[in-house]
Write a structure and sequence with these properties.
The complex is a heterodimer of chains A (117) and B (111).
Chain A (H helix, E strand, L loop, with lengths): L4 E3 L2 E4 L5 E6 L6 E7 L5 E8 L14 E5 L5 E5 L8 E8 L11 E2 L3 E5 L1
Chain B lengths: L3 E4 L2 E5 L4 E7 L6 E7 L6 E7 L4 E4 L2 E6 L4 E6 L8 E7 L7 E2 L3 E6 L1
Parallel strand pairs in B: 2-11
Antiparallel strand pairs in B: 1-3, 3-8, 4-5, 4-9, 6-7, 7-8, 9-10, 9-11
Classes of the chains: A mainly beta (117), B mainly beta (111).
Chain lengths: 117, 111
């Protein structure tokens, strides 16, 4: 079946502009995660949605970052007033998780490569 | 919070040899330990995972071992092939909480 999809695949923007990144999770997956991967670095957690619960925003680096998940499916990550240090690959993952107890596999999308000039 | 350390950062092996990547974690409550392979320009892909009630798991040429007492886990790839060349990430979590990743190991398999 279809995997996690993300759009756009690449985004070049100017410092100070806002950007929106989209994630379409695997159908039926209740959990959705956003991670950031800076050049040569590991993956850094940003935000986590689980069903109808309030999202875990503890990884967002500043108040310029926000995310929404509409109808329990598609998610949008918004970065306002972009800075050069926001340049990274933004990865989305989804899983079948129905709670916190038993871990389910997180499936990753291909990522959006963001370059802030 | 959880901290995951991964070594080595780069690893070169001859085709057919074995490769071993090691990770340590800090939070004894972590109970899920996946390994991801990331090829250039792609998202990470799960290759194997292990839960804290198991000490070892094997899938063909790939195996993972977990030592809960020492808080470390390792990835073993046997009979390496050029297509195994990629960046490998270990991670840890408590159930379905967000994964905490190591910084990755760039594996090069030399034909």
């Amino acid at each position: 079946g279809a995997g996690v999809s993300q759009s756009p695949s690449n985004k070049v923007t100017e410092k100070g502009k806002d950007v929106e990144l989209r994630c379409d999770p695997i159908s039926g997956h209740t959990a959705l995660y956003w991670y950031r991967q800076s050049l040569g670095q590991g993956l850094e957690f940003l935000i986590y949605f689980q069903g109808n619960s309030a999202p875990d925003k503890s990884g967002l680096p500043s108040d310029r970052f926000s995310a929404e998940r509409t109808g329990g499916s598609v998610s949008t990550l918004t970065i306002q007033r972009t800075q050069q240090e926001d340049s990274a690959v933004y990865l989305c993952a989804s899983s079948l998780a129905h709670g916190l107890a038993t871990a389910e596999t997180q499936y990753f999308g291909p990522g959006t490569r963001l370059l802030v000039l | 919070g959880e901290n995951v350390e991964q070594h080595p950062s780069t690893l070169s092996v001859q085709e057919g040899d074995s490769a071993v990547i090691k990770c340590t974690y800090s939070d004894s409550a972590s109970n899920y330990f996946p390994w991801y392979k990331q090829e250039l320009g792609k998202g990470p892909q799960l290759i194997i995972d292990i839960r804290s009630n198991v000490g070892e798991k094997k899938d063909q040429r790939i195996a993972v071992t977990l030592n809960k007492t020492a808080k470390h886990f390792s990835l073993h790839i046997t009979e390496t092939q050029p297509e195994d060349s990629a960046v490998y990430f270990c991670a840890a979590s408590i159930g379905n909480t967000p994964l905490v990743f190591g910084k990755g190991t760039r594996l090069s398999v030399i034909a």
